[in-house]
Write a structure and sequence with these properties.
- This protein has one domain.
- The protein is built from three helices and no strands.
């Protein structure tokens, strides 16, 4: 993303376990982060949402389960919602 504009990528990326952790880091430091807008809006009083014109690279995510596991009804519903949201339902 940065290279397309002749810029060097910022150093030392941080990978946090939860969006809430990211929000806390963003609120209390000079870190910039990418988080889903609905979650950013929850903290809108403490952070500033900056519009980004450039499109972000497409993410590839994978759901994994134990090979012999039978998913619970809730897990099946979650997988169904994820597939539908990704356009593969």
């Amino acid at each position: 993303m940065f290279g397309q504009h002749g810029l060097k990528a910022p150093g030392t990326p941080h990978y946090l376990e939860t969006v809430w952790s990211a929000l806390e880091v963003i609120k209390h430091t000079d870190v910039i982060g990418f988080i889903p807008r609905p979650l950013a809006e929850v903290a809108a009083g403490a952070i500033r949402i900056v519009p980004v014109r450039e499109s972000l690279p497409q993410l590839k995510i994978h759901a994994i389960t134990p090979a012999k596991a039978i998913l619970t009804p809730a897990a099946r519903a979650l997988m169904s919602a994820i597939r539908a949201s990704a356009g593969r339902g």
